[in-house]
Amino acid sequence: MLSDYLPVLLQILIVIGFAALVLILSVVCGRSAKRNATKDSPYECGMLPVGEGSPRFSVKFYLVAMLFVIFDIEVVFMYPWALQLRDLAMQSPVVLVSMAGFAGTLAFAYVYALKKGALNWK
Predict the structure, then answer these.
(1) Nearest-5° angle of CA 64, CA 68, CA 74?
(2) For 33, what's the count of Cα atoms within 13 Å in the CB-facing half-sphere?
(3) Which of 34, 36, 49, 63 is the most buried (most CB within 10 A)?
(4) Distance of alpha carbon 96 from alpha carbon 85, whole angstroms
């Protein structure tokens, strides 16, 4: 039984050893570099940096992106189900109940997001 897991354990040990080796080498080799203000300053194609690096985005952009992904995944799960609905519904009505529960959960999440104002841009 243990012989079945031996290749997996060996691979895990090799990965952990490699990660430790790389981290130790980066610390050892990184100490030899001398730091100064010129090396620590940002480099922008030979020009002196002006202003801040990148503008800050509102959290609303990320929130809407996450909501889009969540509701997009809903369609990914519903599309194959809808294609097989006639065959599946003949076999068992549990298929309809399970999808109704899935759609109900997502409808609840959508109403919750609306109530919290996640989709308001003001």
Answers:
(1) 150
(2) 9
(3) 63
(4) 8
In a domain, 39, yes or no: no
Render pLDDT for 42-73 as a digit per residue (tens, 0 to 9). Answer: 766 766 667 676 777 777 788 888 888 888 88
Q: What is the CB neighbour count within 10 angstroms for residue 6?
A: 9
Distance, CA of 95 to CA of 81 (rounded, Å): 9
SS3 84: coil
Q: Is residue 109 part of a domain?
A: yes
Query: Whole-prediction pTM value?
Result: 0.48
Show the tokens assigned to 40.
Answer: 């620590």
pLDDT in tens, 8-42: 999 999 999 999 999 999 888 876 667 777 777 77
- 111: domain range? 59-116
Q: Is residue 97 part of a domain?
A: yes
Q: What domain count does the chain have?
A: 1
